[in-house]
Design a protein that fits this description.
It comes from Psychroflexus salis. By secondary structure, the chain is α/β, with parallel strands linked by helices. The chain contains 7 helices and 5 strands; from the N terminus they run βαβααβααβαβα. It has a single domain, classed as Rossmann fold, CATH 3.40.50.300. Helices cover 49% and strands 12% of the residues. Helix 1 packs across helix 7 and helix 3 runs antiparallel to helix 4. The longest helix is centred in the C-terminal third of the chain and has 17 residues. 32% of the residues are buried.
């Protein structure tokens, strides 16, 4: 079971798009992957929960968190093999851990937490809430965006993780990311 949560390490720089719902993470991940001629990893939680909603009209439960974590790592490990020097992850286990702790107060799972702490990423791109909130079947916090942003930012600070806060439209966000990412690639 633990093998399913192991992160493939092969010298590829891993960057996570991080932050609350509807902040442009998916759009930016795809745009960055295109800009740097590499791969992006989709958000497994979204695919998993959309299917659960579509098939059974059910929402996320605590029991879903470990299968979601395994699915996210499976997608990441597959993409890292095809990546060109850098990989853009539209979420990671830490993002899922934050959500688990917001939705399921005092969520605990020692195995999940072990891998949240063990996985390594060279940069987190924290997406600001300055883009319009877009409703869909899964998003449910349009009036808690500031609160959620603070929770995500605090998690990065608490863990002393390297991050870049981006804001503005897609082109502005790309312009903010490019020099930092180029520097990472040149190190």
């Amino acid at each position: 079971m633990e093998k399913e949560l192991e992160q493939t390490q092969n010298g590829i720089i891993k960057v996570v798009l991080f932050g609350p719902e509807s902040t442009g993470k998916s759009t930016l991940a795809k745009a960055l992957a295109e800009e740097f001629n590499t791969q992006s990893v989709p958000e497994f939680m979204r695919m998993y929960l959309q299917e659960k909603w579509d098939l059974h009209n059910e929402i996320c439960t605590e029991a879903d968190m470990l299968p979601i974590a395994k699915g996210q790592i499976r997608l990441e490990n597959k993409a890292v093999k095809k990546a060109n020097k850098i990989l853009f992850c539209d979420t990671n286990l830490l993002q899922n851990w934050v959500y688990a702790n917001v939705y399921f107060e005092n969520y605990t799972n020692p195995l999940f937490e072990k891998y949240v702490n063990k996985h390594e990423y060279q940069l987190y791109i924290l997406c600001d809430i300055d883009v319009p909130w877009q409703p869909d079947d899964l998003r449910d916090k349009p009036y808690e965006r500031e609160k959620m942003f603070v929770i995500f930012a605090n998690e990065l600070t608490k863990r002393n993780l390297p991050y870049l806060r981006v804001n503005g439209n897609l082109n502005q966000r790309l312009a903010q990311c490019k020099p930092i990412l180029q520097k990472l690639l040149n190190e």
